[in-house]
Amino acid sequence: MKIFRRGIKLPDYKALSLLTPHFKKAPLPAFVTLPLKQHQGLPAIPLVRSGEAVKTGAKIAAAQGDFSAHIHASVSGTVREVTPDYIRLESDGKDEWEAEIVEQPDWKNTERDKIRQCIFNAGLVGLGGKGFPTHLKLDQTTKGACDLLILNGCESEPFLTADFILMFNKAVEILHGARFLMCVSGAKKCLIAIEDNKLECIEIILSKIRLLGFKDIEVKQVPARYPQGSDSELKRTCIPSKNRDDVKVLIHNVATAYAVYEAVKYHKPLIERVVTITGHCIVEPQNLMFRIGTSAYDAIKTCKGFLRDPVRVIFGGPMTGVSLSHLNTPLTKPVNGIVALAQEFIDEGKEKPCIRCGLCVETCPEHLVPETLIKGIRLKDRAVVRAFQLQNCIECGNCAFVCPSNIPLLDILKEGKQTYFGAPYESMHSEKDLIYAVVP
Amino acid sequence: MPLSPKERLKKTFPKTTSPHWHSRFSSSYWAWQITLGLLPLILLNVIIDFQDTLRLLIFAVLSGLMCDYLFAFFHREEITIDDGSSFLLCLLFILVIPRYTPWWAVMLGVFFVIAAGKACFGGWGQYIFHPSLAGLIFLATCFAGEITPYLRAYEYGTQQAVIPFYAWFFQVDAPTLGNMSPIAVLIGGMVLAWHRRIDPRTPATFLAALLILALLIGIRIDRLFLSHPIALFAFFILPDSSTSPITSRGRIWAGIACALFFLFFKSWLTGIEALAYSVLIINGLTPLLDRYARFVRS
Ligand code: SF4
Ligand code: SF4
């Protein structure tokens, strides 16, 4: 039923950063800080010593086994500091690239194992915010031969427009990337899911599909509702309900597809990505291609600083992002935006008793009853927590957003998941706090 | 001196947990909006019966808020008379009691509503039975001589074969204020339901079930609707947040079950009492309904 759809229509404020829909590179930062753990899994191991000279794209930290990802120098210059947590580089301003990062001959017909190797060598991780190493995600599905690849271009988080800009400007590259991903995973079909508030992107991608003649890629228009970009919601909207359990799907972000394209075509490692710098407090909100490791300070300074004092500065969107305590925090691979929230979006009111209004139930995309769940968690009632299926919560934050009594529902739910189910396993952004925690 | 854009960059921020923003919709705002939904009815009441409406309003609201204040004061709790819940409960209370209720009975009833019905259970959101209805039952039991005859005697249009159209808009001789104008309540309720301040599932299923059942049994629907404040109960009392189920399926079942109970009780309890008892029974069944109506994924 359409009227009673779950999820919420959030005010999106995407227009803020779309004033200039260009695809530009940001100026090189003077320093970059590269945390060794920018992904889920084990941290990388440094390969360089302090004082060494590196070129852009050189591997400076190697993946520790398979459950990890390489890290590359994002500027050319000198290594200034190597610690167990991060490597700091000073840029020489010349931006000399490694010699082997050039267009490969016959890149369109790269073989399957070669593509996988390129992805691993480039240190690719999921760019949608989760930061799960891409090669691992591919390996998981190649074993059980995947049927459908879904490229997630939803970007249901408000404020962020990084994927929009990418689809708007780099549609051909994304389609090639999707082709490579299909080749590795063995998927027969690819769906690009795009929310209906980005009709421009849908048009552009459709025309490029026709241009390139990729018959096995289709565009799926999905309703703009938060959390449309979560895996479970995407599956629900893209696959008809009768064979939802049989179809094996692989979900990747469009930004990842673009990075795959670059990794295969140029052997270019993941050293830069589109980041949205936005919010009502930024002077010139826009999307720029930032080098990984640029500090939030430099990134915001590129956009001319703060217009007025923000109350919170967030990596990622306001629903699931991570708030910064200071602006020296570097941009890591999964960060798709910096949002500077103004006072008027934040309700500092204190927690009041629950009035059982049912708003949390109505907005929960997983059909849970958060009100009963938090009661169960607070009373340490294991039976209630099990009966109401806490494990299905994807930590989207809808319930806490709408709660009129300001109850920190999401914090309580996360805590409950920790105590009853150990590590949070089915969640949208559970590991993200870990990834950003390495702040020098 | 105002800071320049670059100087502002030096600041630090408190670390918070996601979600970092909030809809900024608060519960007291919500209660006041529902109160606003009753405004058309209250206005009509004032026009039709200025004296009684004002008398009831002033006595009920003043003593209700005072009772709320005193209770919080003596229990050293936070004073919450401005959150609108007590006001709403007092308002609903005067809409369901007979309009000729003497002032001392009104005050006593309101004390019962606020102290025993709401505060004793732990305040807004905690009570199991709708306090206004509890107050009504309390009055009807304690002052059976003064209150009950009014509630029971009224059956609209027993003499006339054709019910005049204006009766839907105002009934001058209705025993309770809530009964005076079904259309006014309907308008307020529909607006609130459209904006999702009231979950539309409960009123919709309740009214639909009532219509179908009445057709099956062979009761005259217009008479049923005009003699009972059905719209008021469907939109404002049955879907009351604290006492009705929270799951969406539970809300649908609650509407249907309430219609069943109402027609069942109606055979020997006339008037508003049948409605009140059926809603109270649904209130009692709420935890059960919630438990069995939850969505379970295998
Ligand atoms: S949204 Fe908040 S107040 Fe409403 S039922 Fe859920 S927890 Fe209670
Ligand atoms: S955080 Fe969990 S419980 Fe809350 S709305 Fe999202 S899925 Fe539902």
Automatic annotation (TrEMBL), chain A:
GO terms for molecular function: 4 iron, 4 sulfur cluster binding; electron transfer activity; metal ion binding. It is an enzyme of class 7 (translocase). Pfam families: Complex1_51K, Fer4_7, RnfC_N. It is found in: Cell membrane. The keyword Metal-binding applies. GO terms for biological process: electron transport chain. One of its GO terms (cellular component) is plasma membrane. Its cofactor is [4Fe-4S] cluster. It is a peripheral membrane protein. [4Fe-4S] cluster 2 binds at C364, C393, C396, C399. It comes from the Bacteria. Its EC number is 7.-.-.-. Residues 342-374, 384-413 form the 4Fe-4S ferredoxin-type domain. The complex is composed of six subunits: RnfA, RnfB, RnfC, RnfD, RnfE and RnfG. Part of a membrane-bound complex that couples electron transfer with translocation of ions across the membrane. Belongs to the 4Fe4S bacterial-type ferredoxin family. RnfC subfamily. This is Ion-translocating oxidoreductase complex subunit C. The gene is rnfC.
From TrEMBL, chain B:
The keyword Isomerase does not apply. Pfam families: NQR2_RnfD_RnfE. The chain crosses the membrane at residues 29-48, 54-72, 103-121, 133-154, 174-195, 202-219, 275-293. One of its GO terms (cellular component) is plasma membrane. Keywords: Flavoprotein, FMN, Membrane, Phosphoprotein, Translocase, Transmembrane, Transmembrane helix, Transport. InterPro entries: NqrB/RnfD. This is Electron transporter RnfD.
